[in-house]
Design brief:
The protein is an alpha/beta fold. It has one domain. Helices cover 36% and strands 25% of the residues. It is built from 6 helices and 6 strands; from the N terminus they run αββαββααββαα. It has a 4-stranded mixed sheet with strand order 2-4-5-6. A two-stranded parallel sheet has the order 1-3. A hairpin with a 4-residue loop joins β5 and β6. The longest helix is centred in the C-terminal third of the chain and has 21 residues. 27% of the residues are buried.
Length: 194
């Protein structure tokens, strides 16, 4: 009888425990307040529709001089990796088991996971020659409990906004060098179009 009770408590405990969900990157809205208008207009080179949409919103929202013809291409991308922490590897798990998951009912986390992010921007001239490549990385911890923390998308969005802001600031500081390389190759023409 005692074993059935303990087994039932453990099964219920696992059912009640929260877990960290995946970042829904297609739902992110990544925009920054970094403005430039010093860098010549560039064409979005992404083939993924969601990356294309996010790239347009990020780059053509005051960062590129969209009043002129396109002098090259840009690509934005990002990666999301999760730490491979299982519930049994965390201190929270053993604390919860010791107290038969009663702590989870008052809000103590049942899981913590580290999410690693990387943001990328590549700028090409009209001949598809890579001019500049930027990347930044970051991470954050996401906890989950019975009542909270299951979806890390908003936190990832905020971190990506910060990473892309830093990338665009670096590109802005190098705008003269970028524009010289773009002008040397000339604008995109029908014969150069990808």
């Amino acid at each position: 009888m005692k074993n059935i009770f303990l087994g039932s408590v453990l099964i219920i405990s696992f059912a009640l425990s929260g877990c960290v969900g995946s970042v829904k990157w297609r739902e992110m809205d990544i925009t920054t307040d970094v403005r430039s208008s010093y860098i010549h207009n560039l064409k979005n080179n992404s083939t993924d529709l969601d990356l294309f949409r996010q790239g347009e919103k990020l780059m053509k929202n005051g960062f590129l001089d969209i009043r002129e013809e396109e002098y090259g291409y840009y690509e934005i991308d990002y990666s999301i990796k999760y730490s491979n922490v299982t519930l049994g590897d965390t201190g929270w798990y053993w604390l919860q088991v010791w107290f038969l998951y009663t702590l989870a009912l008052i809000g103590v986390p049942t899981e913590t996971e580290t999410i690693y992010l990387a943001a990328y921007l590549k700028i090409y001239d009209s001949n598809s020659k890579l001019i500049k490549e930027y990347s930044k990385t970051g991470s954050f911890k996401q906890t989950a409990g019975i009542y909270y923390g299951h979806n890390p998308t908003k936190r990832a969005e905020k971190e990506f906004i910060k990473l892309f802001s830093e990338i665009l600031q670096m590109a802005n500081m190098q705008s003269r060098e970028i524009n010289q390389a773009l002008e040397a190759a000339g604008p995109i023409t029908q014969s150069k179009a990808r």
